[in-house]
Amino acid sequence: MKGFAELLDGLAFQPARNGKLRLLEDYFAATPDPDRGYALAALTGNLSLRTAKPKLIRALVDERVDPVLFGWSYDFVGDLAETVALIWPVGETPAGAVPAAAAPTTLGTVVETLNDAGRSEVPGLTRRWLDQMDATQRWALLKLITGGLRVGVSAGLAKTALATFGGVKAAEIEEVWHGISPPYGALFSWLEGHGARPDVSGTAVFRSPMLANPVTDAELATLDAGNYRAEWKWDGIRVQLVALADGQRRVFSRSGDDISPAFPDIVEAMTFSGVLDGELVVMDDDQIAPFDRLQPRLGRRQVSPAMLRDRPAHVRLYDILFDGEEDLRPLPFDARRARLEAWFARAARPRLDLSPLIGFTGWEALADLRGQARQAGIEGLMLKRADSAYVSGRPKGPWFKWKRDPLLIDAVLMYAQRGHGKRSSFYSDYTFGCWRRDRGDDVLVPVGKAYFGFTDDELATLDRWVRNNTINRFGPVREVTPGVVLEVAFDSVHESTRHKSGLAMRFPRISRIRWDKPVDEADRVETLAQLMRV
Amino acid sequence: MTSVPATVASWLKVTESGLYCAAGDFYIDPSRAVPRAVVTHGHGDHARPGHQAVLATAETCAIMTARMGTGAGDSMQPLALGETLRIGNVSLRLAPAGHVLGSAQVVIEHGGHRAVISGDYKRRADPTCTPFELVQCDVFITEATFGLPVFRHPPAALEIERLLASVERFPERCHLVGTYALGKAQRVVALLRAAGYDEPLYIHGALAKLCALYERLGVALGPLLPVADMTKEALAGRIVLAPPSAANDRWARRLPEPLPVGASGWMGVRARARQRGVELALVLSDHADWDELTQTISEVEAAEVWVTHGREDALVHFATGAGLAARALSLAGREEEGA
Ligand SMILES: [Zn+2]
Ligand SMILES: [Zn+2]
Question: Does A26 touch chain B (CB under 8 A)?
Answer without folding.
Answer: yes
